[in-house]
User: Fold these one by one.
Assistant:
Number 1:
Amino acid sequence: MLMRKVPVFVPASPWGLRLPQKFVFLLFLSGLVTLCFGALFLLPNSSRLKRLFLAPRTQQPGLEVVAEVAGHPLAREPESPPNPAPAVPAPGGGDASSQASPRRRNAWPRRPHPTGAREAATAARGGGGAALGPQDGGVPFSFDFSAFRSRLRHPVLGTRVDESKEPQSLVRARREKIKEMMQFAWQSYKLYAMGKNELRPLTRDGYEGNMFGGLSGATIIDSLDTLYLMELQEEFQEAKAWVEENFHLNVSGEASLFEVNIRYIGGLLSAFYLTGEEVFRVKAIKLGEKLLPAFNTPTGIPKGVVNFKSGSNRSWGWAMAGSSSILAEFGSLHLEFLHLTELSGNQVFAEKVRNIRKVLRKINKPFGLYPNFLSPVSGNWMQHHVSVGGLGDSFYEYLIKSWLMSAKTDVEAKEMYYEALEAIETYLLNVSPGGLTYIAEWRGGILDHKMGHLACFSGGMIALGAEDAKEEKRAHYRELAAQITKTCHESYARSDTKLGPEAFWFNSGREAVATQLSESYYILRPEVVESYMYLWRQTHNPIYREWGWEVVMALEKYCRTEAGFSGIQDVYSSIPNHDNKQQTFFLAETLKYLYLLFSEDDMLSLEDWVFNTEAHPLPVNHSDSSSRAGG
Ligand code: DMJ
């Protein structure tokens, strides 16, 4: 048998290939591999392959940046799904991304992007509102900021007068004084409580409270627009830097839907509309998404408390044994939620508040009145307590402001407002023997002849709404607004400190005074000066500036401490007993309204802006382009 001798140095391959054959085979293989990698990296639409092959860290750049911007560590919380194409086209419609097809928008194209909020903000400024893509902030929608600004009728801060020629030097000096108070309130907060929700000026520390679900910096976010308005630039930059670097949304506590909405969402929205800084828009939207589980109820009427961790919700224990939602709470979301939709392109926010409107429109109203407690399960009123003060107040305010913010197109809101006001006039309005007009509280037909400090916003609201009432009612509403505001001033004037109590009564010969110590406190609330501001703008009657100045003097005398402003426990005692709290709304509202009272009418003109119930300005939705000033 012939045995073929195989050279030892050329072993036979297991496949029986000889050297030249192997060489050719290897050549073919390497060609194939090159072709595959070429296809993987060079051909378009290869993202699916890339996801399969690339390391997990680089799989989802969009998500990564969301985490950075919103302060989330990576992949801790499921992010909400990206928004589809906006139903409402971006104003102006001129920028490239707003013209992109929905398919392209959803594709989240991957290209180099800024990696943090600072860069995001710079990008927005540089581009006059150029869109940040989803990969930049997790909010896949563009908003044309310059187009928005060009539609304003007045410059945001008003027409600047040459200060040296301003004849009213007294007015200017008073405005400067209020600015100094803001600066002092801010510096004190910064020194002792930076990053906490509130300053405690006596103990010189910070306080977190339990309304915000673990969110911090309520004073900062509530202050942003006031600092901007007063041109406290350094302080505004400090506040903005804190939001960029330290405002984290990955919190897990229980929050008040209402308080987070009016203070945080309202503050962020205003800061965005005033500055165009993307960080505020992105954080407002991400925070808005965290509030949505509150609406998971059979009627869609949200419950008052939302758990940021579990996404569960509940009603306040004190609200009819945990069975009710509160009118002022679920009725004061409309303005902010419409703007969340405007800025995100996500219809979910608008749908939530439209549904609330629908429920309220349908339900039977006793004598045309809206009681304060409603079951989010059955959609029925749970008690017949009606009030324009606490529990009811800002619901009425948001009706008339929805009409105004819609550039007078939301006719339903207008009708609901005037119908409600008529019922209030018929059943709750009274004049005291001493001639003071007041709005009482109604308990199933029986009146409590008292007015809360909170109800004193109604003078301003009625003044604001007077102009769009039926011709024959306008003068009447103007007069009513003036009378209510005068009564609220009386509640201040009749105290030793010239500050007003939490509630005041009209019975047993007493008028506009508190009847017990537990109602005699003043916690730096804004409602009375808020009405002075609206009445001043409507009438230019100097009395409102005089009354406003009385408040400034009283705040300085009784509420200013060495380390910030504090509420007092008894307005009838000239020896102040401080409550050790500088409320966030003192910076957001009280000082802002006072400052506006001593400013020109076109500073945050009421033609262009409505104030939310925490005094955060939100723009009127001018849809035309007949602007007179771009701000
Ligand atoms: C603010 O937080 C808001 O104005 C709210 O509507 C009720 N009142 C406080 C200030 O008093």
Number 2:
Amino acid sequence: MKSMVKMIKNLSSMFNPKAVCVIGASRKPGKIGHEILKNLINYGFGGKIYPINPEAREILGLKAYPTVKSTPTKPDLAVVALPAVYVSEAIEECGRKGVKAVAVISSGFKEVGNARAEGQIVNLSKKYRMRLLGPNIFGVFYAPSKLNATFGPPNVLPGRIAFITQSGALGIALMGWTISEEVGLSAIVSLGNKSDVDDADLLEFFSQDPNTEVIVIYMEGINDGKEFMKAAKKTVMTKPIIVIKAGRSERGARAILSHTGALAGSDAVYDAAFKQCGVIRTSTTTEAFDLARLFAGQPLPDGDNTVIITNGGGMGIMAVDACKDSGVTLMDIPKDLAAKFRKNSGMPTFGSTVNPIDMTGQIYEAGYSGAIKTALSDPRVNSLIILYCQTAVTDPKMIARAIIKTLKENGAKKPVVTSLVGGEECRVGIRELNRAGIPSYSEPQRAVFVIGAMHEYARYLRKRKK
Ligand code: COA
């Protein structure tokens, strides 16, 4: 059943439609069909928007149409927000009109045991050669076409990270989280029951999408493991894939079955498959987006040597411990480089040049700047972790600005991550660094984790390219 649908690979109508209709666009604020229409309008979608509602003449200032058949032009994408029993009729109508992709928001299909109804809408979409996203989803967002066809937050930040999620509520929650954390997204796709469009299809699309640099997937289960692996193996050669795979525990796996009707399968099998394909697996959503931010902003390292620069011994030691857990290779600093670190940072005699480079708590912006330049200019250093503990003699914001300026002026061609630990002022510094594309975290372990994962990915690529 799937193979023929698979032949219709073109998903671009779903992401770049010229016209969109919302079937079940309610007149009542707070109802799902109404909120989707509102998001579409408010996010600035440039194409035509057709609310479909037989009871309405106008909704949110737009002329409403009683049927898809009656719209003046053919919608490329139809968002269906009707109770499950009416969905197949709506899809048939879309097919007759020549719609190319349908996103079915409605719940009440395979996830509640209604496989027959789901089979019916899959067959219909196949009959009319339409792509079917869902059912049981919160919608689709694509920043380049200003398409927010979701009932999630209205003000998603545009960026370079594509986020694919099998869970609806978690997806919506993470949309909100990315806004408050200022993480920019190129796309958000709610996959729901994956009756047609699945992870493999989207990997294929995003691997060729110039607006996307890294792909994050929240996954509960895969229907077609072989297809996924094939697509993932190809995609990772140009874009990293980060997967948050839920259902590690037996109980978690059982919960998945009743959530999206997916079979979770053995966790060990997923682990092995991800490793083989070069897919990075994370345990938490924070780890996933921490990492995505790094990949979206920084180059890959050429080799394995990492240097830590810090103004706090304790923070440096915590980071060193984390390096062991995250597979980060701490460079043994050669004598000549140690001397340069000492001289260029202006650290006191009681500072240390044994990695971590501990410049001590009495170091200022100029010290950071000197140490960073030293690390950047030495080809034996492949990545850099900059740590800062708030002290009474420095202003975190000024340290952040010095880091940004130094990296900008010295055209960093190696990955750099930072961690600022302290009070509210550090949060300001972290924000400024992130805005400048230099990943910054509130704990050193988070910085170490992302660098470790990036090095592992770079090693995987080097091996595959041999
Ligand atoms: N074509 C177009 N519009 C139609 C219609 C048709 N054939 N038949 C009815 N409508 C109109 C209704 O009149 C209504 O508009 P109104 O409020 O202005 O009267 C609107 O479409 C919606 O229909 P309604 O019956 O009120 O549905 P609903 O809004 O209560 O529920 C869903 C629809 C899709 C939201 C609901 O069935 C559902 O599945 N909810 C769960 C969604 C979900 O959680 N998805 C997963 C997220 S992760």
Number 3:
Amino acid sequence: MHIDPLEKQWVQIALGICAFFIGIIMLDALFHNINAPSNVETIDSARLHLSEEFAEQNLGVQVDGEGQVVVRMIAGRYSFLPKEISVPAETKMTFRWVSSDVLHGVHIPMTNMSTMVVPGYVAQVETSFPKPGEYPALCNEYCGLGHDHMWSKINVLEKDEWQQLQLSMNGADNDE
Ligand code: CUA
């Protein structure tokens, strides 16, 4: 098959442009710590309240045995539970999201948090908040008429301030 040299040149230019844009996307993903969800973990969405991990008293912010901050949230029409949480700034933490009904999504502006919350699965994302302030956690998958009003407030506090708050909340049973 004969290909005209001029046509060949244009094919190369077109491929070059594609490679350029793919490069930009990959670099952007690298610098903003964006990656495909790799955590495949299933859960019974209809029995979350009976599950160990996502029972009501375990929701929200907790510090595990290794000092790692873990946040557990439930997405359901039309809110995230808890409605408001406080977390420390500049700290690596793990968010674990589950849905109690349909497909939802979570987006937290200014962070790498953007994931679908698929019923039956646990969506786990590691993130950190660069500076103190109020951040919204917004639903970004259309889930019904109340979709626009589905969000939670995240108070990001200075590390010291947050630690004080943790201590005062845990009271005497915290012997660290
Ligand atoms: Cu939940 Cu949209």
